[in-house]
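HAT C-terminal dimerisation domain-containing protein (Rotaria socialis), 274 aa
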Amino acid sequence: IVLQEAVELLEPFAEITVRVQSQSVVTASLVVPSVVHLLDHVNVMKTNLRILKSMCIQLEQSIHRRFAGIVKRLHQQSVNANDRFSDHIYFVCTFLDPEFKLYWLRQMKYSPACESKMKESLIQMVLDECDYGQNRSSNNLRETLSSFSSRSIDMNDSVVQSTRTTTDKKRKLFQYDDDSNGCNVSPNSLKSPMNEINAYLNDPLRCNFSLYWKNSQLHTLKNVVKRVYSIQATSAPIERVFSRAGIIMSPRRTSMREEVFRNLVFLRMNESLI
């Protein structure tokens, strides 16, 4: 029983660790949904575990400490500059990943009012990144949210109801129901970042990240994507470079010239492209 509970409790942690250490895909957008998923997971597991309940509580407390900045934003609290993961850029990255957009908010089980406020905050973060200026109208922001507000009420009711009836059902990682209305917006109407955000949120496509933004006509958002997605979720990719470099620069190759060493490391790390 102990082993079974340990596997059920730690399985999402292992799966997320593998995902965020990927090298050939974007990972910055995984941080916030991962924290949300883990918080939801440990909250559910606390009521189901018999032996490892204290371990589950300690994991929950550890998540709150380690990702204090993200957790505070999720609960719409003030974030201190010295909080870990206090930078809002992780939320911007998640917002601009077509796999997540705003779908991950459902797992937080917000009330309709809190969800609307959170959406407004997320959109404002993206607008700030777009450097749209200081004179944005809050009315335009609410207009963008209006198409989601009515759906969010129905969505929250259904989520709460389904949660009550299927508490024991295990939630899969990063899988959300699609409730996009499928609105198509002409590229000619995209005259501002706000319009681009509106078009992006109403786009039903949830394809590969790179493919989506390669073909996207949302030029302002695309420029933000190019800038913020230089961030990686972990240092695993660069650690792999050091590991390979250590193999190349062995005690038997101490006389290797620096230029040759750099070229060998470069070729080894990019051998898949050759």
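Residues 132-139, 152-167 have pLDDT under 50 and may be disordered. The chain has twelve helices and no strands. ok done for today
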